[in-house]
Design a protein that fits this description.
Layout: H1 2-13, E1 18-22, H2 34-48, E2 52-58, E3 60-61, H3 70-81, E4 87-90, H4 92-104, H5 106-109, E5 113-116, E6 119-121, H6 123-132, H7 144-148, H8 154-162, H9 169-175, H10 182-192
Length: 193
């Protein structure tokens, strides 16, 4: 939190005209998730700074589904979310595109708080897409008690199941027609490796 506030203060002191901040989806709607709470505090500091700002609120990064231990993460999500509720997600590449859009068109984006997602899929569908791309899509649901034992960090996973992200994907796609779905993103990742 201190790093974020210090960066905002330094930007203001340097005369930055437009600060684009990448926060987290739902930061304005949920408390009790430690890294969401700190991002909310940084957002409030930015709003109070007097600088022109745009806040981007990414949802789950698609990248987490190709990291080591992704099958454990999917199992945790399956426990917290269930088999049918979708999880919104965004490619990190697309976060960069929205940052560029904000800088290129400040008249449209200054003062905007935009939740970002390019896809919304259930855990079983995420697993199918991963498997179809030659990735490990297998997962095992974790017992809820084990997930709760993780403490405050498990709050995020249960929030995904309670209400979760709320990005307007059709509106985002209108602003950025190349917005990636998980399947699209996986094909980009496979091409670059």
């Amino acid at each position: 939190m201190q790093q974020g506030k210090t960066l905002i203060d330094a930007a203001k002191a340097a005369g930055v005209k437009h600060f684009v901040y990448s926060s987290v989806g739902g930061a304005e709607r949920v408390r009790g998730i430690p890294h969401f709470d700190t991002k909310w505090e940084i957002e409030n500091h930015l709003r109070a700074s007097g600088m022109a700002w745009t806040i981007l609120r990414p949802t789950t990064f698609m990248d987490v589904f190709t990291m080591r231990g992704a099958s454990v993460g999917l199992g945790m999500m399956a426990t917290a979310i269930g088999q049918e509720k979708p999880l919104q997600m965004i490619a990190v590449l697309d976060i960069g595109v929205f940052a560029r859009l904000a800088f290129d068109d400040p008249d449209t984006y200054v003062g905007q708080e935009i939740e970002l997602a390019g896809d919304s899929l259930s855990v079983p569908r995420i697993a199918e897409v991963l498997h179809g791309a030659g990735r490990n899509g297998k997962y095992r649901r974790m017992p809820k008690l084990m997930l709760k034992a993780m403490g405050k960090e498990s709050r995020m996973l249960f929030w995904f199941g309670e209400s979760g992200y709320a990005a307007d994907i059709p509106a985002l796609r209108a602003a950025h027609p190349g917005l990636l779905t998980l399947e699209d993103w996986l094909s980009v990742v496979l091409e670059t490796r």
